[in-house]
Amino acid sequence: xxxxxxxxxxxxxxAAVVLAGVAVPVASxxxxxxxxxxxxxxxxxxxxxxxxxxxxxxxxxxxxxxxxPDHPGLSRYDVFVNWHRDAFRxxxxxxxxxxxxxxAHNSPTFLPWHRQYLHEFEQMLRxxxxxxxxxxxxxxxxxPASTAAVFAADFMGGDGDPTQEHAVTDGPFRKGEWKIxxxxxxxxxxxLTPPKPYLVRNFxxxxxxxxxxxxxAEVAESISVHRYDHQPxxxxxxxxxxxxxxxxxxxxxxxGECNDGWVDVSEQDGAPHVMHNAVHIYTGGLWKEDxxxxxxxxxxxxxxxxxxxxxxxxxxxxxxxxxxxxQRQHYRPQVGAEFGWNGADTMWPWRDRTINSxxxxxRNGYRYxxx
Length: 371
Ligand SMILES: [Cu+2]
Known about the structure:
10 strands; 9 helices; two-stranded antiparallel ribbon; binds copper (II) ion; 27% helix; single chain; alpha+beta
């Protein structure tokens, strides 16, 4: 079977973890300055008012135009693209059992890492716009009404135009209005059709078989998994025992390796992707053109170049919150893994708060309107 690389998804292998009678810290890090009355409510995109949509889009576009004082040469938006891309660098990872653990994917930190990432993004949008009422909306991809609202011309714009190399040509982020400046690194682009400097979407394309958005039944199945995660804490964790991997959406994947400085994954040709992974592939597309593997923006390591990334991941975070409320379980592994994966460790690039402190939305100052 030929193996092919899918860039945004990477594999890792964890050290064996011992979890026995570990006390899980509770609510130790509610920000003292945050007013409890200012609980952020994240709504479904389909429930946003026209003014809320304009404010959210306007803040994103302003972030793209605004230089980041702490990262010379980068806009405040592109700092986030860079963080997501560089989470796949081996140097930001931990060597375990001869394999490299990515900081944010194919690992137990997938959900808390993206929770902090979204939180930082939401705070950044507020700072850039001066509008403290901005909250991240979410895309419930199991609901056709939500999907229609997301890809409308007044929000994210629609599918790419097949007569224009699948460029997005409508909405606020259309070609000419939204320029991609951060691309994947050369090692992960080898052999692929070169990425475009504009948004590319090819809904539902996945080589010959196509791919669909996840269903409500699949979401319910994920939430029913009792344990947060399970050995080997990577893309091969069993889906009936690892909520994290069930939601991340790996099936039949192989552990990642360090390839020219970047964590890379090989997978079996046609291996199925579900849930989170499926939505990335569905939105961007993954197909062959002139014999070369070609990807839409959402399929790269730099997938946050497509702003739909953030509302997709808000929905992943919402499902994480639904699971937290349903299962009342703590993070695993608590101890015994390499630095960077244990509950009391902090996460690259912020290194300011423990993984455990990101469990629970209310103590992190927000909740989801739906569910
Ligand atoms: Cu993702």
